[in-house]
TrEMBL record:
<dbReference type="Pfam" id="PF01344">
    <property type="entry name" value="Kelch_1"/>
</dbReference>
<feature type="region of interest" description="Disordered">
    <location>
        <begin position="1"/>
        <end position="21"/>
    </location>
</feature>
<dbReference type="InterPro" id="IPR015915">
    <property type="entry name" value="Kelch-typ_b-propeller"/>
</dbReference>
<protein>
    <submittedName>
        <fullName>Uncharacterized protein</fullName>
    </submittedName>
</protein>
<dbReference type="InterPro" id="IPR006652">
    <property type="entry name" value="Kelch_1"/>
</dbReference>
<feature type="compositionally biased region" description="Pro residues">
    <location>
        <begin position="7"/>
        <end position="17"/>
    </location>
</feature>
Length: 325
């Protein structure tokens, strides 16, 4: 089975959130992006510790066929458990001969209604009631011990333009009853969201399915049933196509491509975890973390030291945060 290299540790530790960061862990699902004929493909859940900026392996998603991976699913936490919801199942076919290009071929197999629960402390997986509507690339968050899913796509051949029925489709999973119900009229934006998270009873969104970062953060007003721009949230750094993270001593600017962007709420902070592909003879990935303080009136953004690792990995789902007592 393949493995991911451990990223190098930064020269300075990240800033601590107002709450005790040592009790929080950010869980992220990856799979190898490319590989040769000897590469095995799988969904790997990794753990980021914000208190010391280190990564560790947690688990593999079970019950998947060999060289099949889930993408576009949702991963949310309740207590010390995480939930894997929906997604699209892919078969990553290997090169057959040494003369092949060396890149795997991705074949989409099905849209999954699967819902799994993983107890992080006990290292135990279990199955839950399936989605009423199989979907992928949708928004998902937890509020009042209920899991909300909104938007996304339901068919393998879904076009870039999404029908109004799919766009406004929303479901709610009640962990106390173990069943799903429809949530009518909750989401009526022209473009479905990329990711939503909850902080102090408020919902925050970082972008939409066409553009994961729009240059600012949106916050949801439940009383007015509308979204508005969060004060002080404009931040253009995440949109920049160039960076000095080139590994060169002269500080030359080198073009890089953003591989992924995902958002994690810890205390009053929103952590944005971004991965970038660095050009060169061998593939490298630079990880950047930015923190936005939702309670700050000025200077809400902070940037953490980058980490770098060999190879490339693909984000399969947005991250989630688990708090241990």
């Amino acid at each position: 089975m393949g493995s991911f290299p451990s990223p190098s540790r930064p020269t300075t530790p990240p800033p601590s959130p107002e709450s005790n960061a040592s009790s929080y862990r950010v869980l992220v699902a990856f799979c190898p992006k490319e590989g040769g004929s000897n590469t095995n493909y799988f969904n790997c859940i990794q753990c980021y510790n914000p208190s010391n900026n280190t990564w560790s392996h947690v688990s593999l998603i079970p019950d998947l066929l060999e060289n099949h991976v889930l993408k576009g699913f949702a991963m949310v936490s309740l207590g010390e458990s995480i939930y894997i919801v929906g997604g699209r199942l892919w078969n990553k076919r290997k090169p057959q001969t040494s003369s092949d290009s060396g890149e795997s071929v991705n074949v989409c197999v099905q849209v999954s209604p699967l819902v799994l629960r993983y107890n992080v402390r006990l290292d135990q997986w279990s199955k839950c009631a399936t989605l009423g509507v199989p979907r992928y690339d949708f928004a998902c968050c937890v509020c009042d011990k209920k899991i909300y899913v909104a938007g996304g796509k339901s068919y393998l051949d879904s076009a870039r333009g999404i029908s109004s029925a799919e766009r406004s489709s929303a479901e709610v999973f009640d962990t106390r009853t173990g069943g799903w119900d429809l949530a009518v009229g909750m989401w009526q934006l022209d473009v479905p969201p990329n990711q939503i998270v909850a902080v102090d009873g408020k919902l925050f969104s970082s972008g939409d399915c066409l553009k994961p970062w729009k240059g600012h953060i949106d916050v949801y007003d439940g009383k007015q049933n509308m979204w508005d721009e969060a004060d002080g949230s404009r931040f253009q750094t995440l949109n920049l196509p160039f960076s000095t993270i080139s590994g060169s001593s002269n500080g030359n600017w080198a073009p890089i491509e953003r591989l992924y962007l995902t958002m994690a709420p810890i205390g009053t902070q929103l952590y944005f975890l971004a991965g970038y592909r660095v050009p060169g003879e061998s593939p490298r990935t630079v990880s950047m973390v930015y923190a936005f303080d939702t309670s700050a009136t000025i200077g809400a953004w902070k940037s953490l030291e980058p980490t770098e690792e060999e190879g490339e990995k693909e984000l399969c789902s947005h991250c989630c945060v688990v708090q241990f007592s």
